[in-house]
Amino acid sequence: MTARLKIFTGNANRALAEEICKCLSVPLGRADVGRFSDGEMQIRILDNVRGDDTFIVQPTCPPVNDNIMELLIMVDALARASARRITVVLPYYGYGRQDRKAEPRVPISAKLVANIITAAGADRVLAMDLHVGQIQGFFDIPVDHMYAMPVFLDYIRQKKLKDVVVVSPDAGGVERARAFAKRLDADLAIVDKRRPKANVADVMNVIGDVEGKTAILLDDMVDTAGTFCKDAEALKKFGAVRVLAAASHGVLSGPAMERLEASPIEELLITNSIPLLNKKTSKVTVLSVAPLLSEAIRRIHEDESISQLFV
After folding, report:
1. 3-state secondary structure of 78
2. Residue 279 appears among annotated catalytic residues
3. Which residue in 22, 159, 182, 193 is the catalytic one?
4. Which of 126, 65, 115, 119 is nearest to 92 (CA)?
């Protein structure tokens, strides 16, 4: 007896969930996601899910804490409704930057969030471009780790850019940038900088040859855009003729849009893992990861390989 595929979502990114369902030709699962007058969340699953293979599409993006609570309560509701399997689909993993003790007396919040998702009753996780790969090990359940790289590669290849160099904004992103550069047959460069505090970075040097080239800054996320903009200025200073940027998750909080408009970055590529809402600038291009995520969901449901998507 084959379990039916059911996909549900909260309020974090309903448009992405609907697009995934369209790709899979399945209806979006019905759920009441509301609140009591005191702010407590109230969730009721309206479809019968007994024995079903269920997926919850819910990026833990701003408002992060509200979206995490929605996710946890929905997992609990499905578990108590006797779903056969519950897979949490996290296009964006909030608290992912707090993955280690960078200084004394601070939490490892990425591990805490993994613990509570597991404790709520999730059976497995499908995540996309985690801040660091070792977050997979924070979960005591299977984790499938996706990458938005194929989406960016398709778009950039269509632009037919010449003399490309892929630039990692820091040492931690070198592996990601190297893999991207290999598939574009491009050179690799690294921005050396110091980060005195969160959302603040001082560029020290550019390691690698960028003179006369089109530089593509690549990172997993862009938040206030301060780092990207400073890196773009440094790349221009070191001779890059054009600067583009790509980040899987466009948080774009605070002064991000104003900074992008005033920066040398020609175009910023992001995915729809996080809804852009009313943030607008002509420099931002949003690419959909719905086809990629829908194929991953189909493969999980049918017990096929996920890694084959990235060969």
Report:
1. helix
2. no
3. 193
4. 126
